[in-house]
Amino acid sequence: MQEFNAVYQDEIEERVYIEGIEAKKSGSKIVGVYCAFTPHELIAAADAIPVSLCAGSEKPIPFAEKHLPRNLCPLVKSSYGYAINGECPYFNSTDFLIADSTCDGKKKMFELMSKVKPLFLMMLPQNYIYENSKKYWLQEIYQIRDSLEALTGNKITDGSLSNQIKLYNRYRQTVRDIFELNLNGSPKLSGSEINAIMGSAGFEIHLESRIKEMNEAKQMVLARSQTEKWRHAFSQKPRILLTGCPTTNKKVIEAIEAAGGVVCAMESCGGLKTAGDLVDENGNPWEALAEHYIQVACPCMSPNPRRLEILSNLVEDYQVEGVLELVWQGCHTYNVESHQIKKHVQERHQMPYLLIETDYSESDNGQIRLRVEAFLELIKEKNNKRKGDTTQ
After folding, report:
1. Helix locations, the chain, DSSP H
2. Residue 99 in contact with residue 119, Cβ under 8 Å?
3. The domain that contains 89 carries what CATH number?
4. Domain of residue 185, residue span
5. Cα dihedral sign for 64, 56, 242, 353?
6. b/e string for 369-387 if b means 16 or more Cβ within 10 A?
7. Is CB count within 10 Å lower at the N or C end of the chain?
8. d(CA 74, CA 245)
């Protein structure tokens, strides 16, 4: 874990940040994004640089609470706090923001953020099922195109968009390849290591290099798994599927691993929910992009059957032994939908389920650790009972 942190969260992040700032000095525009619904391919096709800005730190929240209610989601408050306190170099470097109306908290917060930086708010349809929703979403993407062309002075052609779709598909496939090292009940790396490999770069610049580095990390993991020390490092640990809100703060992943479990797969944003499917590379690239991004299985959509389908596939493919759902305090969309998730996991898969509702502070770390330990013990007891039934 220390090796991955040193290589990916320090050296690569620093290098990518320097490359992004140098590109900005040379005239490239930097576009901040906040959600999985924003098409990064479109930004790159305008020869701009996307950077994800969802924050996971408790530090800027007191700044945000000068304008926002205290009982709002910590992700919303942290992201806004960094926008106004001037301490986030990534936010400070942006020329333009693209936001998504995924929840009321974000939508109203973005009204305030638009006073700090130029911001385009994509208005999401209420579901991804009806054809009218897809047509509406395509028009939103065309509006983003117009805004990006005005910002950058670059025309986004069908060809430039198609090229970026192919490149980002390769990136998604690489993310899938990293996760698939944990397929079939034989994990080769932890959830923290997956985060270190995938989530440290910041600016999405020179994506070819990022793909190469992630493939190098994959080879490191495969080579490590052949050594005696690592061959069975994760084989006896309960295999956990982490679902729910974006894992912008790592406290729950760390609690699972500290208690002796392994996060073998993550369904949440930034994980297999968004990397699991590729954009269609045939036909009209604009329609393909709209079709792909409207399908994000977010609880802000109603109904949201794709999330249950994705969860079932991951449970089976990764031979999951327990599902843990993370909900940030104040996130009503995920919290309401957690009832359906619990029922689906327990009734469809006869599997232990645990809901952790928390914020970005460390005040409840001990309580979370105790609940996770009890959850893992329940899984172990169930496994031992199953083995006993099999031998009888």
Report:
1. 2-4, 13-25, 40-45, 61-64, 74-85, 89-93, 104-113, 131-152, 158-179, 191-198, 207-225, 228-231, 251-258, 272-275, 285-293, 305-317, 332-343, 365-391
2. yes
3. 3.40.50.11900
4. 1-392
5. negative
6. bebbbebbeebbebeeeee
7. C
8. 11
> Residue 11 carries which DSSP code?
I
- Give the tens place of pLDDT for each residue, 150-198: 999 999 999 999 999 999 999 999 999 999 999 989 999 999 999 888 8
Instruction: Show Cβ contacts of residue 208 under 8 Å, excluding neighbours closer than 6 positions.
Output: 167
What's the total number of domains in the chain?
Answer: 1
Contact 193, 4 (CB under 8 A): yes
Cis amide leading into 303 (omega within 30): yes
Long-range CB contacts (< 8 A, 24+ apart) of 108-114?
109/68, 109/72, 109/76, 109/79, 109/80, 110/34, 112/67, 112/68, 112/80, 113/80, 113/83
Backbone angles phi, psi at 121, to 5 degrees: -100, 115
Cβ neighbours for 322, distance < 8 A, ≥ 6 positions apart: 238, 239, 240, 241, 261, 351, 352, 353, 354, 375, 376, 378, 379
How many Cα atoms within 13 Å fall on the side-chain side of residue 316? 7
Which two three-digit tokens encode residue 7?
A: 């290589």
For the record, the structure tokens of 155 come out as 């025309």
Q: What parts of the chain have a pLDDT lower than 70?
A: 1-9, 200-201, 389-392
Contact 249, 360 (CB under 8 A): yes
Q: What is the pTM of this model?
A: 0.94
Q: For the chain, what's the residue count? A: 392
- φ, ψ for residue 33 (rounded to 5)? -130, 155
User: Who contacts 242 (Cβ-Cβ below 8 Å, separation ≥6)?
Assistant: 191, 252, 253, 256, 263, 265, 266, 267, 268, 271, 324, 325, 326
Give the residue carrying structure tokens 């490590």.
224
CA distance 273 to 293: 11
- pLDDT tens, 98-120? 999 999 999 999 999 999 999 99
